[in-house]
Amino acid sequence: MQKLEYNGWTNYETWNYKLWLDNEYKTNKSINSLAKSVIQTEQEEDQVFKMSELLKMECMNNEPNLKPSFYSDVLSASLKEVNFHEIAEAYIEDNRKELEEMIKEAKHLGKLITQKQVDEEIKKVKGLFKQA
C-alpha cells in the first residue's frame, strides 16, 4: 500500500507531529532551542541525525502507557510512521538560517556569541525538557 504525501510532508503522521511541535508554545520554544544547541555543538554532517534521535526520544518518552488493545496497536503503528529525519531537517535548516542571521548581525555590531552563551542555552534547553 503506497502512502501519499500530506501537506508537503512524508505522511499524515509526520505532518501531525510537526504541527503539534510547532503549535504548543513551550514545546516549540524548547525544540527550537534544542536545534540551535545541536547546530552549535555537533559537526554539520551529524546535526540532522542527532536532532532526529532527540525528537524520536522526546516523542517516545511522552507516549501514553496504554493497556494492550486495538488503540495501543494503532497508536504504536502511527508513531512508527513519523519521519523524524524529515522533521529534524526542517528544524536544523530553519534554525541554522536564524543563527547565521544572528551571527551576521552580531558581527555587524562588533559582538560575537561566546561559548558561555552557548553553554547557558544548552542548560536552559535541558531544564525545559526536565519540566515537560
Helix-strand layout with pairing:
Layout: H1 12-23, H2 25-41, H3 47-61, H4 70-80, H5 84-108, H6 115-131
Fraction in helix? over 70%
What gross morphology would you assign? elongated
Total number of helices: 6
Radius of gyration: 17 Å
Write down the overall mean pLDDT.
Answer: 88
Q: Beta-sheet strand percentage?
A: under 5%
Largest sheet: none
Walkthrough of the structure:
The chain is an all-alpha fold and 132 residues long. It has one domain (12-131). The chain is 73% helix and 0% strand. Helix 2 (25-41) crosses helix 5, helix 2 runs antiparallel to helix 6 (115-131) and helix 3 (47-61) crosses helix 5 (84-108).
What are the salient characteristics of this protein?
0% strand, elongated, 132 residues, mainly alpha, 6 helices
Give a quick precis of the structure:
The protein has helices spanning 12-23, 25-41, 47-61, 70-80, 84-108, 115-131. By secondary structure, it is mainly α.
